[in-house]
Structures
1.
Amino acid sequence: MNALPCEHRYAHRCGPTPLVSVSLEGGPAIWCKLEFMNPSGSTKDRIARYILEKAWRQGKLCAGDTVVEASSGSTSIALALACAQMGLRFVAVMPEGVSSERVMIIRAYGGQVRLTPRDQGIRGSLAETERYAQECNAFLPRQFANLDNAEAHRVGTAREIVDQLPGGLVHAVVSGVGTGGTLVGLYQGLSEAGCPVVPVLARPVNIRQQPEVECCSFSARIPGVVDSLSRIFAEAELPDLQTIEVNDEVALGTARKLMRRGFPIGPSSGLNFAAAVAMAQKLERSGQACPTVVTVFPDRMERYFTTELFHDPS
Ligand code: PMP
């Protein structure tokens, strides 16, 4: 078993992040896990460290090796920070057009950024990642397929929630899905702890895209949340999975309201919170008095300065 490099052993760790009860405008109280308080500013610190440390201990990674990942944001930033601390080389592959703050942060941590054509989206980045990793014999964390992603949340985030929550009982856990690691890991960890928990997928929709269609279309306006790409999510057992659709304008508006309440969060926190409120109301209507609904605030506002989150129309 390989020991971790000395400076890394003493580097600041992920979690426990605070779990706080938040209610907006007289609505139901939601338990929110403040994941933006992790070292690089997002919940992805957990998976970056979990995956890299495990590979290091297993001798699959050592100082000077290259790590390559397709990610348009938080995971790349978290991997760039962890690689800087562990003496690893990091290359992020992402579609053109991602906010410049992200590229600047990754480069500041010593990472490299390779951009793929915008019209190919994250799929183009995934293909380029495979090609480039073969070329330079790199380690691939593969956040969309690596079950250690969900595992990091099962053994980390979920256990923290059970310890932090008065009574330790959760009725529903709500999250937008990118890789699915957060929702799958939280559901598994909370179920194992004995919670009668329902997993809830928060899905952003844009009602203007297809006004005549009853079921709304997925909106790409909430960074980090994607539509049906993840193997982790597709292959997970999530009995009774519920989906709550949130108008993307409502998600962004909720994020702005949360910022005015003193939470330095990004758009997906607004999506998650709005869906969690809808789920709590649904549980109340079905006779569950004061349901305990948990969600996450995945990342920080600073990486969205050049996006519409900061173009408040009101
Ligand atoms: N990144 C951000 C910024 C998010 O908001 C979300 C959704 N909660 C995700 C990623 C998705 O998390 P996961 O990849 O664990 O599904």
2.
Amino acid sequence: MKRVLVIGAAGQIGSELSAALWNHCGSAAVLATDIRDPATWGGRTEAQRLDCLDRGALARAVRDFRADTIFHLAAILSASAEANPLLAWRVNMDGLLNVLRVAAAHRCRVFAPSSIAAFGPEAPRDPTPQTTVQRPSTMYGVTKVAGELLCDYYHARYGVDARGLRFPGLISYRTPPGGGTTDYAIEIFHAALATGRYNCFLRADTRLDMMYMPDATRAVIELMEAAPEPLRHRNAFNVTAMQFTPAELAREIRRHIAEFRIDYNPDPVRQAIADSWPDRLDDSEARAQWGWRHRYDLPRMATAMMRGLARTMTHDRGRLQAMTESAGR
Ligand code: NAD
Ligand code: AKB
């Protein structure tokens, strides 16, 4: 992993993973790309516009940058995919296929994430085993299962060193989330700080699996650095860090902002998606095969989110000041 190409680098994971790779591999070693114009998102790394559906442009970027590893993060997430299933199929499947074909031709390694969405209502919920019935009921989930299998196929058939993680909902504050169902767990912090109230689009008792972004970017790098021999589930490792319901997250936020109030107005589409997903993944295989360990639990994540947002949000300085003081106690 000496020269890396990041696709979907303007997104929630891509923006933070690009920065982590910049620190890990060195300043000249990361080319960050996205379909969006880099003028609107570019940071420290070299950045350019790239549509993963354009295989010729993708191959040229890999060749010209002499990339040896591709981090493929471009996708349409769960709620957006239900709104536009055909676009989700195209971006999530054709985009991944282009990445794998270019990787095979240019002898690149690939990281492509899967999701808790790869499981459907027939899978055991708590815990959801590493290997079990999947049968997702969303278009996003269908593309995630197919993506896991496609990566396995390119590894077995063409020797592409493709690896992947089944991420739970990821929580972060630097870049807004991109149209998922777990987005409520980010919106709630922004709303708590901005207005002290949040109108939640999921039911109070909807338990979902979650992880704080620094654990997620570290997991990606650790998986890509792991010795290949022990990796028996290379493209679909369950990983997890914490599980909570909106009511439990609201209670945690009240430890920082005592007057915080939450209302519940479930959105039928996102509620149905959440109801079809696991409560908690069993990540014992990731722990055994490459040493995965999470560092952030719910209280630690909430404190980090409060402090991080307090630094980045500029409105309502009085509330932020009070919150920062209480978060520090
Ligand atoms: P995101 O929506 O925040 O970012 C995706 C990025 O891809 C966006 O910046 C978008 O502009 C870009 N993009 C869209 N179409 C493109 C195209 N044709 N070519 C190039 N770029 C394109 O998503 P994210 O949350 O960063 O997710 C990244 C990956 O991680 C996805 O595969 C997603 O399924 C997976 N994942 C995310 C989460 C999470 O909670 N964020 C959880 C599980 C899995
Ligand atoms: C989504 O909600 O779509 C994503 C995911 C869990 O894959 N955050």
